Amino acid sequence: MRITAIRLERLVLPLDPPFSAAWDPEPRRSFEATLVRVETDEGLVGVGSGDTMDGFPRFEHLFVGRDPLDLERHVRALETITFHAGRYWPLETALWDLAGQAQDRPVAALLGGRAERVPAYASCGVRRGPAEQAEAALARREEGFRALKIRIRAAALDDGLAAVTATREAVGDTMEIIVDLNEGWRMAGDVSPPIEASEARRAAECLAELGVLWLEEPLPAEDVEGHVHLRSVIRVAGGEMARTTAELEALLAADALDVYQPDAVLAVGILRARDLAERVLARGRWFAPHTWTNGIGVLANLHLTAAVGGGPFLEFPYDPPAWSVERRDFMLAEPLRVDADGFVEVPDRPGLGVVLDEDAVARYRVPVG
Ligand SMILES: [Mg+2]
């Protein structure tokens, strides 16, 4: 089998009302997704999505004409490109999708096949006051979730801690609460100063009191030592946007995290994250990747997490009405959902199990810039 072409399609879903993501100073009036389709001379087509793939066409020739199943080689090639240009991991995702189709097995089975379903946590996307956040948590519990993640910010730490306190009072011990400070990285152009170490520690101490399962990105990603110190107070998570395996290896070598979160479609790809996960889990730490892209990205991370026996929860970006599964998965024929027990099933189809809504793809397609 040979790769004959790698086609990119840019989709833009208008968001009305807009979505005010907790980590983005700008309200989002549209939601962009780039589809990657790897075409082959045998008619199989692999699909991936996640990163924007901006600038990729100039590298397409490094893959066309080659065997799509030569995944190790393609991952090494993508790593050389990452140094010069973008994080084109959706291409690797599409190649895994293709490999699964070629072998008539789900990607999770190819990667290790430890689990067929994974408990999910509802990952909130907007910031709320205490009463509203508690109410949202109860609504998620009604839907089956046994865990949720709340975003708080350093600039309004006491407001955030109040929201977590109110949520704990509302749900008692019936739900795990995860908190994300989003201090690991910034949106382009957000030059606000980093959190002070004493503030991160104050948050950690308060959240530990509230029985929070883990505190995510409490400090800038480069502050490996700072993460190590905070681990004595609360479980610490990070690594979602690591750009190289070396960054993650440094965290592991320093034993700086309790929860490793490299996103399959944004950070270091599926193969490298799988290898890391094996060592993370062998050390008794957790592997629970970031998944905040679209339904295809969630699927890629679901297969990866299920394959390695990761968890204890999979991130499930979901915060209705602002962030519904219909918005998140607008390119899929059926949105991915949790069952009444709060689990997400790994699709039992070959590859990733992506079924595109081709009408939606055609409706929201714009020229690739
Ligand atoms: Mg995060």
How are the SSEs placed, and which strands pair?
Layout: E1 3-19, E2 28-40, E3 45-49, H1 71-84, H2 89-103, H3 107-111, E4 117-123, H4 130-142, E5 147-151, H5 157-171, E6 176-180, H6 197-209, E7 215-216, H7 224-230, E8 236-238, H8 245-253, E9 259-260, H9 269-282, E10 286-287, H10 295-308, E11 314-317, H11 325-328, E12 343-345, H12 358-364, E13 365-366
Parallel strand pairs: 4-5, 4-11, 5-6, 6-7, 7-8, 8-9, 9-10
Antiparallel strand pairs: 1-2, 1-13, 2-3, 4-12
Helix pairs in contact: 1-2, 4-5, 5-6, 8-9, 9-10
Structure description:
With 369 residues, the chain is an alpha/beta fold. The protein has two domains: 114 residues, Enolase-like, N-terminal domain (Enolase-like, domain 1); 236 residues, Enolase-like C-terminal domain (TIM Barrel, Alpha-Beta Barrel), CATH 3.20.20.120. It has twelve helices and 13 strands. The strands form two sheets. Strands 4, 5, 6, 7, 8, 9, 10, 11 and 12 form a nine-stranded mixed sheet that branches. Strands 3-2-1-13 form a four-stranded antiparallel sheet. Helix 4 runs parallel beside helix 5, helix 8 runs parallel beside helix 9 and helix 9 packs parallel to helix 10. The longest helix has 15 residues. It is globular. The structure holds magnesium ion. Magnesium ion binds next to loops.
